[in-house]
Hints:
three-stranded antiparallel beta sheet; seven-stranded mixed beta sheet; serine biosynthesis (chains A, B); homodimer; PyrdxlP-dep_Trfase_major (chains A, B); alpha/beta; pyridoxine biosynthesis (chains A, B); 2 domains; Aspartate Aminotransferase, domain 1; Aspartate Aminotransferase, domain 2
Amino acid sequence: MKKHNFSAGPSILPQEVFQKASQAILDFDNTGLSLIEISHRSKEFVAVYDKAVALVKEILNVPATHEVLFLQGGASTQFLMTAINLMKVDGGKSAYINTGAWSNKALKEAKNFGEVVEVASSADTNHNYIPKGYQIPTDVDYVHFTSNNTIFGTQFKNYPETDAVLVADMSSDIFSKPVDVSKFGIIYAGAQKNLGPAGATLVIIKKDILGNTGRTIPSMLDYQIHIKGESMFNTPPVFAIYVSMLNLEYMKAQGGLEAISQKNEEKAALLYNEIDNNPSFVNNVAKEDRSLMNVVFLLNDDSKDADFLAACTAAGISNVKGHRSVGGFRASIYNAMPIESVQALVDVMKKF
Amino acid sequence: MKKHNFSAGPSILPQEVFQKASQAILDFDNTGLSLIEISHRSKEFVAVYDKAVALVKEILNVPATHEVLFLQGGASTQFLMTAINLMKVDGGKSAYINTGAWSNKALKEAKNFGEVVEVASSADTNHNYIPKGYQIPTDVDYVHFTSNNTIFGTQFKNYPETDAVLVADMSSDIFSKPVDVSKFGIIYAGAQKNLGPAGATLVIIKKDILGNTGRTIPSMLDYQIHIKGESMFNTPPVFAIYVSMLNLEYMKAQGGLEAISQKNEEKAALLYNEIDNNPSFVNNVAKEDRSLMNVVFLLNDDSKDADFLAACTAAGISNVKGHRSVGGFRASIYNAMPIESVQALVDVMKKF
């Protein structure tokens, strides 16, 4: 039976990427060696790394002012790195927009390094909307937001307007649509949604915002050291970078982010349309803030949750249970999710 | 032609591990899904994680006083984490034994968090021996050493004796021989030598040494948080942990560390014997400190370096060029290196 994998992350990637990755574990590029036994400084892997960086720059149209890094430690490490690299040692101050879970964790880590202003929060209604109309102080070292919330199913459609350095955790919607990178000081993303397997973290960073804090930064947390080392200050996550490179090649072959964005809109419309028109289901997110990546929904009669889950399982649909903090259901429909799989879920909903 | 991969790391792993890893990328455990598209919180992956931890405990005979973690960021991140987790915020002091390169980097990072005493160093002769007969102050928060040096080809055969908390970077010789874990506060190791692919870091830590610094530690750097989260405070490096688990299974099937250690001794003896008896080659490391993992050697006539390298390449032998800081040659003969490959190198040396 065909499997439909709606996992929130690590998540589905293109089948073609799995095939190539599997082959490279046995024999990488006809070297007679496995991808995972070669030196990260071998010319073969340096070529993979360079290609991955070049593809990120091309696909996201990254300006020359910005560097691209592949690090380890996920977005959780970036919560700490953004703060330690940007917040001044004397009188450091940053602004956070709290859209739940991840942005809250980011905010908490920043408090280790200075004053943190929560300029807006959607906590009043359990984060079912994106705050709007807030004021951002002008004297902050940076402004941080989480572009898409995987748990509550919300997504920024317009990014915050500010003259301060703008920092975004785009872990769950990077590469899902075009982004004007020039407006950002830092964009970071754990790879394990639209980019690649768990174990790599993409960081896109404007060089001239660094080195201004007066702070001594441990080497592994210092973006300037990683820029100088071209992500090889220490041994990089070779496999995760290789698979990301394969997926970036696939994205380019798909026509880039305009084409990908259009497909994502179609998939999301199909599913939200069913939720809105099927009296058994409801989505409580403000319509204009609905995520195109993570579609959350509830059964109007939650005593039937187990029945619905069983119907999904019977149809080969996996990982649609909602996060434990909100309950209900969640369908994560990242780039690699085919519209046929979304249709399979819609078919189950229709029958239910 | 059969390839003989003497890479210093990432390095050779058993062929059986490559086969299983390759298959899991296509279909993990008959789930119909790829290993790299499943949730790290799925019961299937939690079982992999639990098995990896259990195998580390069994193979290294880890006492109940110690926890096992799989983190990200490599030994370089541990340089920082060991210091921030162990050095007291007021009057913090640690002792480091400097055997070159990696221990020097570890020492440098610790200076961010308190006083660092270099209790011994082999810098006087470019690190071609392991210091002995030094005094360790009794008032230090911990003592740090690097058990094996990949660049200079040295290895501790006896560990430092101290009543202080003992911390070891065992990145390049863990799982190569039995170790009395009970004597250590922390053992850490980047996976990419004897354990698995780049991207995972093994940490074995005595629980009762934590929480005593008076320091606020950012979450991702706090061992107590990772222990509480069972290495899943954030998304772990799924693939690298899975492959490590496969390799741990393989080690166990080989008869464990006693059997592995014996093979490693045989391989090293074969190669050192040739170096010592062949007038074309020389090894300048103190005999009692010679590494069983990384065998460094020079040609007595270095004008023939290129010829020797060409002879190696012609015989399918790769990655025997020495580190740029010492020159000459280096054969890394980790666990997975078959004695036949060492013999292939010895044959080239004999003919040369």
